[in-house]
Design brief:
The protein is α+β, with helices and mostly antiparallel strands. A hairpin with a 2-residue loop joins strand 3 and strand 4. 43% of the residues are buried.
Length: 360
Amino acid sequence: MTDKQKQGVHAVSQDFKAYEQVEKNQNYHLAETPDADEFDEDFVIQTLDMSGLLSGDKQAGNLFAQQLGKAMEEIGFVILTGHGVDTALYEEAQVKIKQFFETISEQQKLNYLAQREGSVNQGYFPIKQTTIIHPDLVQGWVFCRRAFNMDNDSDYQEDKFWPEKHYEAFFRKICQAHEKLVLPIMQSILHYFDCDKTLYDEKLTRANFGFRLNYYPPLNDEDISSGAGRMLGHEDVDLFTLLPAQDLDGLQVLNRKNMKWVKLKAPQGSIVMNTGDYMQRITNDRLPSTTHRVSSPRDESRMRKCRISFPMAIYIRENEYLEVLPGLENPHYPPIKAIDFHTRITSKYYGDDYAIRQEK
């Protein structure tokens, strides 16, 4: 653990405000602080059924757009059911991710250490090295669109991204299934703001994404006493994230209105969705990039179990611009190239030299 990470166990979010590219006034400890944290036991994250929208029913689609927009505007999180993704894929993914991290040697993994590809840090993150500011108790592996042969590129090289090739074909199925939800969700959000629903169709067709495999190993006594969390409090950088529900508790969402944490428990087979910094930027702060974290289980016996998750973060391509949506009055932000925006924010995690500036 570096000196900066040791400090990060006690750091608060406003220590890194200079890196943010959207307004974030909430101030919270990056790590869990049992003596200071308060919980909102009354707030319920809304559950929305996508089946009517996906069937093409216009009335159901209109209703979904309004419900989704209001839920996102209120807290930035929602639980999606009726999404049409084969949940057997999610069950198999739990097994494969555990196998992936437990059977591939650390030496093999280190050959794929994360490095910036465009705007996204892609590759392997060893435990306590997800960021330079906090020792998260998780091993992670980020795969961008480039890591999958989704577009049948003639020069695609599987072993450039995958230490064992057979995993690519399986995880590609999940990414392709989630990709089918991207336009319906974005079109619904645009409809909520009375914008042309197709405004982002081209930007989100074969767009980049970050598909992250997370393996939280069983916690030992040293981990528990260190003060570090399984994943620090943070906001996602993207438009929105799709996260299949997990069977082990830990995901918590910050309710900005009262600065209390909401313990999120979603039904198996559902998808947890949240909006990120890209979305806050283009909606002129209407849809917040909501703070969340992964805490240690409250039940001590469950601390000795590993936790698996596999979120998919949706971006636009690096050289496209993020602009406040038409019709939203008094824009708070000028247009900015996605790669500038993304790397300026994430340089708080990876170091100041990570930022790229390619403004007009």
